[in-house]
Write a structure and sequence with these properties.
- With about 210 residues, the chain is an alpha/beta fold.
- The chain has one domain: Phosphoglycerate mutase-like (Rossmann fold, 3-Layer(aba) Sandwich).
- About 40% of the residues lie in helices and about 15% in strands.
- The protein is built from seven helices and six strands.
- The chain has a six-stranded mixed beta sheet with strand order 3-2-4-1-5-6.
- The chain is globular.
Length: about 210
């Protein structure tokens, strides 16, 4: 029994490209983001991965990424579960702002604290600690039992909702989590033991189409 869990951050979104805080806003993928998603699908296929079940957020950039990956794998009709708990962090007043403009308004140190710290919320938004509090029950109650039962599961979500999962899987601390960056479109493959701890972790290389 493989007990495979794959985590995948969505491809580049329109607001990633514009350097805007996105949070719960709902832009779609750029052309680059579409190709990143397809490349992730090709990479997973080349390594022999397939999935019995898929999870994603309520936001279109993650859903579109998952759709493209499953199409590349030739399994577009497997069951997909959408869950608000897997949404990106809510950045509150920062949503929609250019990151450089936010730095000019509040200062680089304050903006970095809002972005990267574990438990400091931007005004009207969530901290990473808040994201962990909603992501972890979804993982423990919905995702993990499927993986431990032998199903191969892919989760297509967002930088911070996946940081919350990686924090748990990799046993990171509030002191070490700020250093973690989840790249767009790069699959993280986990093999779990029967006690749900990580037996192995692999970051797969992206495979782009030949021009």
């Amino acid at each position: 029994m493989d007990r495979i869990l794959v985590l995948l951050r969505h491809g580049q979104s329109e607001w990633n490209h514009k350097n805007l805080f996105t949070g719960w806003k709902d832009p779609d993928l750029t052309l680059k983001g579409v190709e990143e998603a397809r490349a992730a699908g090709r990479c997973l296929k080349a390594h022999g991965y397939f999935f019995n079940r898929a999870f994603t957020s309520n936001l279109v950039r993650a859903q579109h990424t998952l759709q493209l990956v499953l199409a590349e794998l030739g399994t577009p009709y497997i069951e997909v579960i959408r869950d608000r708990a897997l949404n990106e962090r809510d950045y509150g007043v920062l949503c929609g702002l250019n990151k450089d403009d936010a730095i000019r308004k509040w200062g680089g140190e304050q903006v970095e604290l809002w972005r990267r710290s574990y438990d400091v919320r931007p005004p009207g938004g969530e901290s990473l600690k808040d994201a962990v509090a909603r992501v972890l029950p979804c993982y423990c109650q919905r995702i993990l039992p499927l993986v431990l039962g032998g199903q191969r599961v892919i989760v297509a979500a967002h930088g911070n909702s996946l940081r919350a999962l990686v924090m748990v899987l990799d046993c990171l601390t509030p002191e070490t989590i700020p250093e973690l960056e989840i790249r767009t479109g790069v699959p993280l493959v986990y093999r779990l033991r029967t006690d749900s701890t990580v037996a192995a972790k692999e970051t797969l290389p992206m495979i782009y189409a030949q021009p």
